[in-house]
Amino acid sequence: MSFLVLILSWGSMGLETAAAVGLSDFxxxxxxxVMNTTQxxxxxxxxxxxxxxxxxxxxxxPFQQRLTVCQRALSNIHSQLYGLERxxxxxxxxxxxxxxxxxxxxxxxxxxxxxxVALVNCRGLHKDYVDGLKGLCYDGMEGLxxxxxxxxxxxxxxxxxxxxxxxxxxxxQNRDSDYDDMEDDDPFTPQ
Length: 191
What we know:
This protein is an all-alpha fold and about 190 residues long. It has one domain (about 1-165). Helix content is about 85%, strand content about 0%. The protein contains six helices and no strands. Helix 2 (about 30-40) runs antiparallel to helix 3 and helix 4 (about 65-90) runs antiparallel to helix 5. The radius of gyration is 37 Å and the shape is rod-shaped. The two termini are about 40 Å apart. The model has no long low-confidence stretch (mean pLDDT about 85).
């Protein structure tokens, strides 16, 4: 049983070493790995991935053109609705209720659009990505290295104990025979 535990302790240390090497390889260039893996699994364009991974002023927002077109369309609808309200309500007072309803729906749509713009922005996701990488590559690596060190020390001490125990046991047995040769008239002999 002790040899099985010995093999398991050295085997677990080998697994921890492999995990530390793999994690250090990942932490050397995480952006490339994340970009290749995400692109292979999801099929997203490299421009979108680059935008969210780097989140700098130099990288063009791939959604900016579409967002600008939508913002212009919303502004255009607002101005046309305002013009319709100004021209049509004096001639058709019953249409005021419908125009107010359309304005309310347009305001909700514009609010949802602003939430969408905030969600599409790379800052929040990039901050979470960087925080996750820091936690994994610094704290996780440090914890894994400490685990590896203590696993090594415990495996080494257990190996020493398993290898030295048979010799020590033989010596203890030999010493017991030395104590059997006691003299009866010795004043220091325990009674």
